[in-house]
Design a protein that fits this description.
The chain is an alpha+beta fold and about 160 residues long. It is about 25% helix and about 30% strand. It is globular. The relative contact order is 0.14. The structure holds coenzyme A.
Length: about 160
């Protein structure tokens, strides 16, 4: 398995958009698959965020992970976010999701991001194992979500803290 920028694999954009749509369309019902395709096409590797990584094995797409500026419109004060961590069902529980998160966090460090956020309805344990801590529990789009954070720099280098 290898992890690469989605931008280097544009052929995967339609299927990835479809997967994401099936998983998360309930969060924003007006966002279409075509909207997702267009958003992915506009990402530009090496220019910061948004950025998406894909896990690939023998030219088969396994999953993806992104960094986006905003992922929760009720918490625009928090940025940026780890978002859209997704592994196709048949490839789960083999370490692909963890590898995607780790690679994405490495990218965030390269971008000199101090703190990364995420929200999850049910995957707190998965992220805790990867070093994330709970910031708060927040109702969002009618369900309870846990907002988590990961510090990427030591506290003494920070001017402010959340
Ligand atoms: C959440 C998700 C990305 C995890 O992907 P994954 O590839 O299964 O992740 P991993 O294999 O790295 O880890 C999953 C579990 O399998 C375990 N695991 C990892 N490698 C394993 C292996 N070789 N054998 C058995 N179990 C293994 C991990 O310990 C982990 O357990 P935990 O969740 O209790 O911590 C995936 O389930 C998914 O796409 N879900 C739908 C979308 C979603 O919910 N995304 C998260 C939004 S916040």
């Amino acid at each position: 398995m290898r992890i690469d920028y989605l931008e280097a694999h544009p052929d995967f954009i339609p299927i990835l958009s479809q997967w994401h749509h099936e998983q998360w369309s309930y969060l924003n019902p007006s966002r279409t698959v075509d909207d997702r395709i267009e958003e992915f096409k506009q990402e530009t590797t090496g220019k910061g965020i948004p950025v998406t990584f894909v896990a690939i094995s023998e030219n088969v797409l396994l999953g993806s992970s992104s960094i986006v500026a905003n992922d929760m419109d009720t918490r625009m004060d928090l940025s940026p976010w780890l978002a859209s961590v997704y592994v196709a069902p048949q490839h789960r529980e083999q370490g692909v999701g963890s590898a995607l998160v780790r690679r994405t966090v490495e990218e965030a460090k390269k971008l000199e991001i101090e703190t990364l956020y995420l929200f999850t309805p049910d995957r707190e344990k998965f992220y805790k194992r990867l070093g994330w801590t709970v910031l708060e529990v927040s109702e969002y789009r009618g369900e309870n979500n846990v907002i988590m954070k990961l510090r990427l720099t030591s506290d003494e280098n920070l001017n402010s803290s959340i």
